[in-house]
Fold this sequence. Notes:
The structure holds two protein chains of two kinds.
Chain A: E1 4-13, E2 16-26, E3 31-35, H1 42-50, E4 57-62, E5 65-66, E6 77-80, H2 92-102, H3 107-120, H4 136-148, E7 154-158, H5 166-182, E8 186-191, H6 194-200, E9 203-208, E10 211-216, H7 218-223, H8 228-233, E11 240-247, E12 251-254, E13 259-261, E14 275-280, E15 285-287, E16 301-310, E17 315-321, E18 324-330, E19 341-346, E20 352-355
Parallel strand pairs in A: 3-8, 3-9, 6-7, 7-8
Antiparallel strand pairs in A: 1-2, 1-4, 4-5, 9-10, 11-12, 11-14, 12-13, 14-20, 15-19, 16-17, 16-19, 17-18
Chain B: H1 8-34, H2 54-60, H3 63-96, H4 101-108, H5 116-126, H6 133-140, H7 154-183, H8 186-194, H9 199-227, H10 231-236, H11 248-258, H12 262-293
Helix pairs in contact in B: 1-12, 2-12, 3-7, 3-9, 5-7, 7-9, 8-9, 9-12, 11-12
Amino acid sequence: MASVQLNNVVKKYGALEVVHGINLDVAHNEFVVLVGPSGCGKSTTLRMIAGLEEISGGEISIGEQVVNDLPPRDRNISMVFQNYALYPHMTVRENLGFSLKIAGKEQAEIDRAVNEASTILALEDYMDRRPGALSGGQRQRVAMGRAIVRHPDVFLFDEPLSNLDAKLRAQMRVEIKKLHQKIKTTIIYVTHDQVEAMTLADRIVIMRDGFIEQQGTPSEVFEHPVNTFVATFIGSPPMNLLQGKVIADNQLAFAEGFTLPVPQEFVGAVKAGQDIVLGFRADNLMPENHALDLDEASPPIKMPIVVSEPLGTETLLYTRLAGGEIQAKMLKPRPVVDGEVLTFHLDLARCHLFDADTQKSLR
Amino acid sequence: MRRKKIPTWFVLIFPALVILAAVVLVPLLFSLYSSFTPYKLTRPDTLFKWIGTFNYQKAINSAVFWAAFGRTVLLLTIALNLEMLLGLGLALLVSRVTRGQRALRTLMMFPMMFSPILVGFQFKFIFNDNVGLVNNALQSLGLTNEAIPWLVDKNLAMFSIIFAEMWSSTSVFAILILAGLFAIPQDPLEAAKVDGCTPWQTFRHITLPFLMPFIYIALAIRSLDVARAYDIVQIMTNGGPARRTELLWTLIGRTGYVDAKMGYANAMGYISIVMAIFFTIFFFRKLNAARSELGMAG
């Protein structure tokens, strides 16, 4: 049970700096997800918290204690690795109890903790098997079990689900969420999958190139991305972006003579002549007669369908607008023919404007 | 009349069969046969006299033979264990080296590049009681005034031989164990660190189980090597003085070629082979057990 603070933490490999002085406060019992594309420094950050990587600058504290120079074993943390990292020569039971045995705990106490963990994770039937005889999902559960028997202050997860197939991943996501409800502990979770981040996190921390781009609750980062990177990284399909310019009379002009009024929210925030990027999600661009409750409907927009992807409950439409390919959603699907021209409405109240130079939100 | 056609499979394996028969099978059967005769190299006609298991009985009842047998097992046990420990230590040290590791690995293999005969001569000189390096050094340092009879005293001679063996072959262990160290996945080691292991506990519970298959392979190879030890001993002490360092194969070699009693030598040879086979099976069993523990069997 502890909070975690990262204070201006830097990681260098020789002359190459990969994490550039990040600050992060993780509250007691909070579930924080570090998310970003590969190479953004999220795993390195996690490994620095674990003590598996030395830090090149700054300060990391766990539960008020600075742990910069403590080896992993003295940090009272548990970690679940991407490749499970089970001990192949030990049975599930031995894997679970290993850390307690190392700590010199009594056999009775070890048994109790191991049984408790195996019940939580439904591992009772595999206790005497070796990891080699388990499926991916089972191994993942053993890895989590090994982490929980120690009752650590902080759980660290390093892309724990990326080796599982889609169905199992969704299932384990729920398991992890349940686990957090059951054993209230601080969790720091690293993933490159924004769906995992959105579904699991109390707070999402989006990283790119060794910097934190934005942090906030899932709905904050989804609804108010601070820049185009966050806007396109969070949410699926990624947010549509159109390059444009503010012209007189609060109008936005795009390629091929396409224009739109400036959304009410941004009137006054932009001035004529400014280069902007318009961002909107597929969910907010809908064909006529499918547009449900638009708060601020745009004038009708005619667009040809390039490709349609029926997903059952909805159909994803790939269309062309102002020289770019964009995606729209049909919420009450009907068969669509490729090449068919449909009339769309955009919900201007859900649009975002970014500065074209800085890529930052103009909100 | 049609010629009978030889089956293709037979045509294909025939050359291999001929070669195998010529270089392995016939000599093997011949030596096995001769072990049941009083065959002496100097009297070829003795080859045709069948004496049953006389040679085997003679060997089994011979104190000299069993002394050599015991000495060989002793040499094998001591040399293998020491080489394994030293090789393990060496491999662990070298694996931590960050600069010049390749060069170091090559250097480490130098002793393996010398003929055992030359190693024998080298250590015969080093341990010589009058002009040897060791005595010279000990005397110069004032540690002793005596000329220590390294190759004459029973225990010291065995020690010297074991030392020479270790010098030439510890690197076999080091290289194989080093290969094992490189093959260890990093994840379980990191998991162990997070699980609270000290460096020693990590080594004991994670690294060592991963290394065991490599250690057993090295032990199996080296046990065959040492069980047939001949060259180094032959050069350094010639099994002497007064058979104090007589090993199985120096004894067998002397019996066969010096005393020319080839039939008797072959009988002893066959008994000794049993020992080599025993050690091989023993270590391969261990190897398979260690591998299946790691889920690598199959």
